[in-house]
Amino acid sequence: MTSEHVFLNDIISDHRERMLNLKKYYPFFKLAEISFSQFKEAGCELLDMGYITMAILRFFIEENNFKEKEITYGEYVEFMTNCLKRDFGLNLLPQDNKAVIDYIFDKIKNEGKPFTFEYFDPLDKKKRVSRMKLIESKIVDNTVWYSISSDAIEFYLDTKEIKDESKISVEQLLLEKMIKSKNFKGGTEVVKRINSEVNKMQYRKNEVVAILSNDVFAGIEAYEDFVDSGMRWFEDEQKLFVKNMELIEAALNKTEFEDTNSESYYRTVKEIYELETELKVAINKHSELLRACTDLQILTDQIIKRNKLSRLRTGFNFNNSLNDIIKHDDAQVLVDLLNPMMSLNIKKNFNLISIDDILTYRPQKPETVERIKAVKQENIVFEDELEDERIKANYHFFMKHLLQYISKHKEFTLAEFNDYLMKRYSEDIFRNGDYYSFFIHLCQKTFYRLKDIKEQELRETFLEEILKDNTEYMDIAFSIVMGEEDANTIKLCDLFEITNITFVRED
User: Which of 117, 171, 452, 495 has the fewest other C-beta atoms within 10 Å?
Assistant: First the structure.
């Protein structure tokens, strides 16, 4: 019965956690499928999007985290230009180079939208959507600054450890990202990994001591490797610990301005305190490791010194010494030979300091297992999901009215359609920004036949998904005639200008 419970727990209860762990790999494999076939004329058939993705992530980690600065688009273009020349041997014309690099950046950013990873939750019996971005952006002083997301850093660390930096330092940079993005629960998991790394270093230190006690030469080699790969980062790691503690304190101070009666306030404060407690444990363990490594340095120096002295002692040959005494006929040499043997110190004393150490020694308390209750995860609605729902609803609204108007009029202009909407809904409808983006999407094609769109499996534009839902207008086909941009414009609400276009129904 117990084995069956474990078996079912692995399948059902752990499924959500497994899917959340898998989500950070999803964008890479989605990007790796991208083809550069449209750039064949520029000789871009050899370009590999998987390699380019990993190169860009490493570039962002270097600039954002190790150099502690964000990136402009110009810096990205410079890096990618060098990457295409160096790694793929491409020397593109300026216009081709710009087109390829812009295309790659749009795909990495997923055109500004997060990558969505859908999975079935067997506990709640419904579909869930997990979301992540590789690159984040913000506008400061009319300049767009780009930085890597915490999920992208975690994905890159999982693929291979960065050898040029301490694993603890890199994990702390990830922790800094999570604190700034208010992902305190995820930050606690990162700190637990830091504790695991500290434990690994403590174990490696003990291994070095064991090797030193058996083989001095192998021990010195192991000690030097330990110093080079771990101990030389201690100072940087301590600074990052202090920096992250300050970020946690700042986050805790900000909660004072929130609604103290809301459920989200108590959940946030609880997560911050859990993160702070876990980080304090990590700092204490790291300090203990630092003290242990200092003791290791002293022990290593003593073992090396003792080994050197033992190697200076040569073996004494009594036969050779007797032959030298007979040869020189000098018995005085026997005095120098026997005096050290007559004055041996055979008394052994017990160090008083060691007695004090024994009396004051306190054994470590056994660690108690903390039982964590499973908390049901709330269904969180993200801001961009609300934006997508709003845009979709508005596009359905505009498309329905446009098809109604087309079904009644053989040919008309956008200005005439605007007058129709204004009479029904007043001028306020033109203050909706989705109205203008709707026609930008619509004008990506100049001819639409709803029946063909419904039958085809792959749809070329975003609006074709909306067109196929209007089943009552399946017999309609229409074309769009573009007007001259400079001479034929429409002014709306004394705020916006839009180029006039003509719609023609094809019977």
Answer: 495
CA distance 243 to 158: 24
Residues 37, 45: Cα–Cα separation, whole Å: 6
Between 184-214 and 216-229, two packed helices, what is the crossing angle to 10 degrees?
Answer: 160
pLDDT digits (tens, 9 = 90+) for 205-214: 778 777 777 7
Decide: 506 and 407 in contact? Cβ < 8 Å: no
**Exposed, middle or buried by CB within 10 Å (0-12, 13-18, 19+), for 492?**
middle
Residue 463, number of CB atoms within 10 A of its CB: 22
Helix, strand, or coil here: 131? strand
Pick from 23, 247, 310, 38: nearest CA to 149: 23
Interval 299-312 mean pLDDT = 68
| 3-state per-residue secondary structure call for 354-396 | HHHHHHHCCCCCCCCCCCCCCCCCCCCCCHHHHHHHHHHHHHH
Q: CA-CA distances (angstroms) from residue 506 to 34, 326, 452, 465, 479?
A: 36, 130, 14, 21, 7
For the question of whether the overall pTM of this predicted structure is more than 0.70, the answer is no
d(CA 302, CA 289): 20
| Residues with Cβ within 8 Å of residue 390, at least 6 apart in sequence | 434
Phi then psi for residue 162, to 5 deg, are -80, 110
DSSP string, 170-184: HHHHHHHHHHHTT-H
Say if CB 149 and CB 135 are below 8 A apart: yes
* Contact residues for 41 (Cβ-Cβ < 8 A; gap 6+): none
Which tops the pLDDT comparison, 420 or 495?
420
How far apart (Å, rounded) are the C-alpha atoms in residues 177 and 247? 10
3-state secondary structure at position 138:
strand
